[in-house]
Amino acid sequence: MRNLFLLLVTSFTLYSCDKSINGRIIDNFNKPVENVEIKITNSGYESKSDNKGKFKIDYAAGKFKIVFKNHNYIDVEKELEINEQKNYPLGQIEMIRIPDSTGLYFKGNDDFIQIPKITLVPAKKVLYSMLTGYVDQISYYLPKVSIKEILIDSIKAVEFYNFLDLPVILLLSDNGSVAIQSQGPTYLSKVNGIQVSETITNLIGNATISMFTPQLDKTYVYINFKDEYGFQRMSNTAFAFKFVLKKKE
User: Fold this and answer.
1) Could you read off the pLDDT of 69-78 as tens digits, one per residue?
2) How is residue 12 annotated by DSSP?
3) Over 60: is that where the pLDDT of 8 sits?
4) Does residue 105 contact residue 150 with C-beta atoms inside 8 Å?
5) Which phi and psi angles does 16 have, rounded to 5°?
6) What are phi and psi of 246, to 5 degrees?
7) Domain spanning 2-95, CATH architecture
8) What is the pTM of this model?
């Protein structure tokens, strides 16, 4: 009995002295992230997450930065100020997984869904021409290829990840036409397309994460555009997709 009492007292004492930062790391699909390197900058404190995403790291009280790194994920940094040495639960840390290749991705329930890249068909038409200038019009059309269908459970905001290193705008296709670009005598350009309102939720390095609420069975197009000398130029590289409700079983 005395030995059991001493064991309990010793365990309690060790636990009480364990004054560390602890938490759990998950990815953007709510899966645990293993082998994340966790470091407190300008110190020798470091640790790693286990196969359940859990971690624990020692620290010195004060103001400091804690960094989470894994080569398959976007780094996360947290600035903390803990004025008293104690057990500090940091809670759940989310790290965004990086896909295997650059591209445009829809966030599915369990993994990324990559949107195939397509080439739009441009049709140029000169509307007006004089020695002093001209007005051109270029219409961009979807080719006769299959559009990526994305099955969803219900109408709600959807999330896209742009790992392209390219600027894109989201347009709604209308009867095969994606956008019409007019260029005037001063080389100013105007895009007459049905632009869809997006909310940028995160911008980390080259990754842009955005959300919008789609309509069913409508074709959406992310189209590249280039900004040359301060002017917007459309490109015929695009990503086309539509949303379809899953059939109830």
Assistant:
1) 999 999 999 9
2) H
3) no
4) no
5) -65, -30
6) -65, 145
7) Sandwich (2.60)
8) 0.78
Higher pLDDT, 34 or 179: 34
Residue 154's identity, in one-letter code, is S
pLDDT tens figures, 212-248 = 999 988 999 998 876 555 456 677 889 999 999 988 7
Place of tokens 């803990």: 82
Say how far residue 107 (Cα) sits from the centre of its chain: 9
Q: Residue 231: its pLDDT value, please?
A: 54
Question: Stretch 113-137: mean pLDDT, rounded?
Answer: 79
Please tell me whether residue 200 adopts helix, strand or coil conformation: strand
CA quadruple 183, 184, 185, 188: dihedral, nearest 10: -70
CA angle 165, 169, 171 (to 5 degrees): 145
Both structure tokens of 51: 């196969």
Q: Exposed, middle or buried by CB within 10 Å (0-12, 13-18, 19+), for 147? A: middle
150 CB-contact burial (10 Å; exposed 0-12 / middle 13-18 / buried 19+): middle
Domain with CATH 2.60.40.4130 in the chain: 2-95
**How many other CB atoms sit within 10 Å of the CB of residue 25?**
26
